[in-house]
Design brief:
This protein is α/β, with parallel strands linked by helices and 251 residues long. It has a domain of 170 residues: Rossmann fold (3-Layer(aba) Sandwich). Helix content is 35%, strand content 24%. The chain contains eight helices and ten strands. The strands form two sheets. Strands 6-7-8-3-9-10 form a six-stranded mixed sheet, with helices on both faces. Strands 2-1-4-5 form a four-stranded antiparallel sheet, sandwiched between helices. The protein is globular and about 50 Å long. The structure holds adenosine-5'-diphosphate (ADP) and magnesium ion. Adenosine-5'-diphosphate binds next to β2 and α2.
């Protein structure tokens, strides 16, 4: 997708030897984990010097697993999810997606991997303003050279209840409708990895429920690995596993 945010410019690089364990990465990769996170940390420069947003975290997610990441606002959930998706740059550590160490790739390599494997729903939607709903959803299909892009995009929008909003531009859609377009865009390629940042945050209960159903259906039907950042305890409870983050640490 062309609109992924660039890595933050105030990134503080780590010295040599990030302090992570190569052995545990190797073990996770050998296990065929969908995601292996090893010694992953994020620090940024701030007025008083350096701020640690994410302390070194380690975990693995198996293929077709459903994982909820929960924690208070400002605890580092979005930062972690962005790092998992290759949208940010870590200060230390590794993210291995399906055996590929994504930060050993260059930007283009990471973009190609995202296109092939990853659907991402941003907390702030990130729809393209000059494209209609259906054109936003067609975009990842066109980028990957899929056939029948319009039909597939229309069918996915229908599935999230927006069959009658195909030609609307984002600014003429409510927050909840924009969120559903963002979900349709992330899921239309049926990616093996689905990441969503507070996917029901701006939806009413009934629409939220239909979106949750859709995500878990894709998980079941296609064996997609699902990682959800959420405040919603009932959504977290439906995931196979929950990890909690507090002040940038797993607790
Ligand atoms: N690029 C950045 N520079 C400085 N501070 C940041 C940056 N990105 C995030 N933060 C801060 O890091 C903390 C965690 O942010 P975030 O990951 O968005 O939390 P959450 O998604 O859990 O609400 C917040 O205090 C936020 O203000
Ligand atoms: Mg967030």
């Amino acid at each position: 997708m062309p609109d992924f945010p660039k890595a933050s410019s105030n990134f503080v690089p780590d010295g040599p030897g990030g302090g992570y364990s190569t052995a545990s990465t190797a073990a996770a990769v050998a296990d065929g984990a969908a995601i292996a996170v090893v010694g992953l940390a994020k620090r940024v420069a701030d007025a008083s010097g350096e701020l640690t947003i994410l302390h070194e975290v380690d975990f693995t997610v198996q293929k077709a697993e459903t994982l909820a990441i929960v924690g208070a606002s400002g605890s580092g959930k979005s930062t972690l999810l962005g790092l998992l998706a290759g949208l940010d740059t870590p200060s230390a550590g590794k993210v291995v997606l399906d055996g590929v160490d994504i930060y050993a790739l260059d930007e283009d390599g990471r973009a190609a991997l995202r296109k092939e494997k990853l659907g991402f729903v941003f907390q702030s939607f990130q729809l393209l303003a000059h494209l209609t709903a259906v054109e936003n959803v067609m975009l990842p299909l066109e980028l990957s050279g899929a056939t029948h892009a319009r039909e597939k995009a229309e069918a996915m929008l229908d599935r999230v209840g927006l069959g009658s909003r195909l030609k609307h531009y984002p600014k003429y859609l409510s927050g909840g409708e924009q969120q559903r377009v963002a979900l349709a865009r992330a899921f239309v390629t049926e990616p093996p990895l689905l990441f969503a940042d507070e996917p029901t945050g701006s939806l009413d209960a009934a629409t939220g429920e239909s979106v949750i159903k859709l995500m878990f259906e894709l998980n079941r039907q296609h064996g997609s690995t699902l990682v959800l950042v959420t405040h919603d305890q009932s959504m977290a409870a439906r995931c196979g596993r929950t990890i909690t983050i507090a002040a940038g640490r797993l607790v």
